[in-house]
Write a structure and sequence with these properties.
Blueprint: E1 2-3, E2 21-27, H1 46-53, E3 56-62, H2 68-77, H3 81-84, E4 91-92, H4 100-106, E5 110-114, H5 122-125, E6 133-135, E7 141-142, E8 145-146, H6 152-164, E9 172-178, H7 203-228, E10 234-240, E11 245-246, E12 252-253, H8 260-263, E13 264-270, E14 277-284, H9 288-295, E15 319-324, E16 346-351, E17 354-359, E18 362-367, H10 383-399, E19 406-407, H11 412-420
Parallel strand pairs: 1-14, 2-9, 2-10, 3-14, 5-6, 5-9
Antiparallel strand pairs: 3-13, 4-19, 7-8, 10-13, 11-12, 15-16, 16-17, 17-18
């Protein structure tokens, strides 16, 4: 069922005396087109596909910066990474920036978070503020080796324990973040949607097979959590922080490019009061926080830049700017904070089906409907449109000056973990 961007239905909220439980499920490094509900031909996401059938699925959602710290910061604040200064990993959210979980806790919610990526550990990201429990206790050496991620089975196990110990007479907000699709990719023999993928001759094919295997493994363990959630009066927002380039444009990874493989993310909203279907309405990471508040019957905070995706009166976003600052954290002690003041190495703009990519003096222009893989640069053949869109980017950049993040003092273990994730240069 297709739903017009201007006809998104949000049936009247549940009674204020019975506020909804709200669950934010996020998966690290998950590009939309590797889920069956977004057209993947392999059985990577059988359980998430079932959730999609009961949800409002946004076909056109992008992140602000294709990097975990900045992207998650945007989702929890409804501010652009440049506005908070969180433009790279290894930078910490300032205490003056309101976080959505603080608003929920003030409204009487029990607030829980289970983390799985070292980048999001409390003392490194500052995103723990407002959570009653922020479980990132996987940062331990095992056989003398830093483990920078927690796997999906453990994330779900801890979520289930938290839910079983909650006060059933009060609503809860749970943020569960799964990191398995993040490199380095593992192959799970019992989760092999691209059959015999690791035996393929080409490195690109083997990489994609392992990436798909990680998604299938994560999907299985997310299903365990979905099955355990209260069947009534629970709302779910499923999203990814960013995507991943799997050798498209000659690039493996994320953080340094603004092509669709890195920025197009899945987003679906399930609630008993939300009409299931699919919409082409544009959405962004900054829209997550006001939408979470709406599901709890709360209003957005003043200054939030995103919109409640369930409010038809909020309209739709016509221009979306994406930035890439590079994913590396500097090795020199005491200079982390400088990284929030560096200009982006790439900027992108999506407007009316056009995609502009700017890197210094280099400009690329694509018509996404005709060229979803961004392979045919139209900047030279349509210079007037490229110049017009570039001026929009300049105006947007001037309108939103860069804010100041807090410096994170990286420990030796922090540096070892970030290096193993590919975030240290």
């Amino acid at each position: 069922m297709s739903i017009s961007p201007f006809l998104l239905l949000f049936v009247s909220a549940l009674s204020p005396s019975v506020p909804s439980n709200v669950v934010l499920l996020s998966v690290d490094t998950l590009r939309a087109d590797y889920l069956g509900c977004y057209g993947c031909p392999y059985e990577t996401s059988l359980n998430l596909d079932k959730l999609a059938e009961r949800s409002l699925v946004f076909e056109d959602c992008v992140c602000e910066v294709p990097l975990t710290g900045p992207a998650c910061g945007s989702m929890l604040t409804s501010l652009y990474p440049r506005s908070t200064g969180i433009v790279r990993n290894g930078l910490r959210m300032a205490p003056s920036v309101p976080l959505v979980q603080e608003q929920l806790r003030a409204a009487g919610y029990q607030t829980y978070c289970v983390q799985s990526n070292w980048t999001l550990k409390a003392d490194l990201s500052g995103l723990d503020r407002g959570f009653d429990i922020y479980d990132d206790d996987f940062h331990k050496k095992r056989w003398g080796i830093i483990k920078p991620e927690r796997y999906a089975d453990e994330v779900t196990d801890i979520c289930l324990k938290l839910l079983s110990n909650r006060d059933p007479n009060r609503p809860f907000f749970l943020w569960a973040h799964y990191s398995d699709p993040h490199a380095p990719y593992r192959h799970h023999k019992d989760y092999d949607p691209i059959r015999r993928g690791t035996a393929l001759s080409k490195r690109t094919e083997r990489t994609r097979a392992k990436y798909a295997s990680e998604i299938a493994f994560t999907d299985h363990h997310i299903a365990r959590l979905l099955d355990a959630l209260p069947k009534k009066n629970t709302a779910i927002v499923f999203v990814a922080d960013h995507g991943e380039s799997l050798y498209e444009h000659g690039y493996l990874g994320h953080g340094r490019r603004v092509y669709q493989t890195c920025v197009h993310i899945p987003l679906m909203i399930y609630a008993p009061t939300v009409q299931a279907g699919r919409t082409k309405a544009s959405a962004r990471g900054v829209d997550v926080a006001p939408t979470l508040l709406s599901l709890a019957g709360l209003s957005p905070l003043p200054g939030m830049l995103g919109r409640n995706l369930l409010d038809e009166e909020s309209g739709t976003t016509t221009s979306r700017v994406i930035e890439a600052y590079g994913c590396a954290v500097p090795k020199g002690l005491g200079v982390e904070n400088l990284m929030s003041r560096i200009a982006p190495q790439q900027q992108g703009l999506i407007q009316d089906g056009w995609k502009l990519v700017v890197a210094g003096s280099h400009v690329e222009l694509y018509r996404l409907a005709d060229d979803p893989g961004e392979e045919h640069n139209l900047a030279l053949s349509t210079p007037e449109r490229a110049a017009w869109l570039r001026e929009i980017v300049r105006s947007w950049t001037s309108k939103y000056p860069q804010g100041q993040a807090l410096e994170s003092a990286l420990s030796h273990d922090d540096r070892s973990a970030l290096e193993s994730l590919g975030y240290l240069r």
